[in-house]
Amino acid sequence: MLQSQKLLAPAALLAQLSPAPILQTMKRILFTLLLIGPFVLSAQTPLWIWPDRAEKTETVYFRKVVELPAGKIKSAKLQATCDNGFSLFVNGKPALAG
Question: Which residues cross the membrane (predicted)?
Fold first, then answer.
């Protein structure tokens, strides 16, 4: 003869849990997000670069030299955008276009 097991519905199961530890955890997460949020957002704010006197049909070239410590960087993510089109090169080789 099979013994029947009493299964609890999800609502009944949640009712058995005390909300205090869950609320404390949620408060800690919210506090952490509010504390570090402005720093993360400011680090990701994009800046448009353009010469002051460029014509609308003019092709403009930008160059930025970045020196990275040898052997320290295993991978990197490169993001770029523009309003018309771009070709991005790293060490003289095509890396990104848009």
Answer: 29-50
| Coil vs helix vs strand at 95 | strand
Where does 1-98 have alpha helices with state H?
A: 10-16, 19-43
Q: Is 74 part of a structural domain of the chain?
A: yes
Closest listed residue to residue 23, CA positions, set 35, 33, 34, 31: 31
Q: Which H helix or E strand runs over 97?
A: strand 93-97
Count of domains for the chain? 1
